[in-house]
Description:
With 163 residues, this protein is mainly α. It has a domain at 1-56. Helix content is 62%, strand content 2%. The protein has helices spanning 11-23, 27-36, 41-48, 58-73, 78-89, 93-100, 106-119, 126-132, 146-158; strands at 122-123, 140-141. It is elongated, with a radius of gyration of 20 Å.
Amino acid sequence: MFEKFGEFDSYKEINELAENLFNEGDMDSIKALAEENGIDKGFADAYIAGEIAELTDPLNAAVGKLDIECKELKLEEIMVDWVEYIKDQCINDLMAHQVRKKGRSLKGCIAALLKWSFGHQQNIDQDILKAAGVKAGRVTLGIPGMGQAKRIIRDYYLGGAAR
Length: 163
């Protein structure tokens, strides 16, 4: 992940590099930059053609980073739902900036959710275990509800940032 160009701290850094590459005539690298950062090929083509002034904006840079991270982590089920919530929140420029920021990652966010989950496990009633066909003597579950998950996600990404 981010092997060729490295991790960028903001959409502005991506655009600065894209502009430098454009001025050097290195259109293949602009396409590679977009791909590595999860930015749609159509944006790279439009940028190269001069149809748009910048390669990306805060929303697309953040969502692109999430897409790359999600692909690497091979997420499924509830974790995909969490990622969709984060993407929806990126409509807010502050959230988009924080998601794109170096040191913030989907892996770290999911770790915060997992940490909460382990700290809030509840014993599952024996009747539920029996109905589910589970023969274990004791089962616990600690998945946050969506409201709690949203708070954990916002705290992870926006923790020190002004809200």
